[in-house]
Amino acid sequence: MSDHILIVEDEEKIALLIRDYLEAEGFVTTILDRGDLVESYIAKTPVDLILLDVMLPGKDGLTLCRDIRKTSSLPVIMLTARVSEIDRLVGLELGSDDYICKPFSPREVVARVKAVLRRTSPPARETEIAIGPLALNEDRHTCTVDNKEVTLTPNEFGILRLLMAHPGKVFSRSELLDKVQGYHFEGYERTVDSHVKNLRKKLAARLPKVQLILSVYGIGYKLNDRAFDGTY
Q: Measured between alpha carbons, how far apart are the two ends of the chain, in Å?
């Protein structure tokens, strides 16, 4: 079955252009032109990814993304004419998986959609990585601490999976981007910091005494391979 992409964009020409390119690649698409229609739609209709404009009537994209993240890890790529770095980081801290600034190439949008879907699709066989009470199930795309689920976005899951697969190994921001997102654009390294910040916050809620992801000054991040040597 083809992946279903929800395009939330109030500029008709842009929405139709994105739709045409996605459908040419075999995706199924739906267009909504108001933010306040989205939550009721996804509650009733299976969607694999949302392309979400920031400036929308009814409910703006940033607020909508934040509200979706309260209950769902559904992949979200934000579309915006705001090009400042602060807006980009705000969007990522609210839980979006990627951020594309207008004007953009429709082919770039398709490439980003495919990259996000690749990293959220389950592998051919079930694989679980576990360190102490922390476990990732790649087939189910779930994260648990003491068998209690922690909801992660696809980027957060990908970063944690990579770090857990190589405890103690230091990964630069650009390496994390390449391996987790599947592409690397100049200036995007700092988006990794936003994903790690969110990831740490979620894990700390379940493991308040454990410093799991360590910063390596001037380089990047690593998983603390001695995090569970004692009690937690």
A: 44
Give me the helices (H) in 70-153, please. Answer: 85-93, 106-120
For the stretch 208-226, pLDDT in tens is 888 999 999 888 999 998 8
**Interhelix angle for 106-120 vs 12-24, to 10°?**
60
Domain containing 160 equals: 128-223
Q: Are 115 and 181 in contact (CB under 8 A)?
A: yes
* Domain end among 100, 120, 140: 120
Return all residues near 111 (Cβ < 8 A) that are at least 6 apart: 183
The CATH number linked to 37 is: 3.40.50.2300
Residue 80 lies in a domain: yes
pLDDT, tens digit, for every residue of 194-203?
Answer: 889 999 999 9
Q: What is the pTM of this model?
A: 0.61
Residue of 22, 31, 71, 74 lying closest to 53 (CA atoms): 31
Does residue 232 lie within any of the structural domains?
A: no
Can you read off the two tokens belonging to residue 127? 């694989």
Query: Which residues are CB-contacts of 10 (< 8 A; sequence separation ≥ 6)?
Result: 33, 34, 53, 55, 56, 57
Tell me how long the chain is: 232
Mark whether 147 and 101 lie in a shared domain. no
List the one residue out of 30, 9, 185 whose CA is nearest residue 80: 9
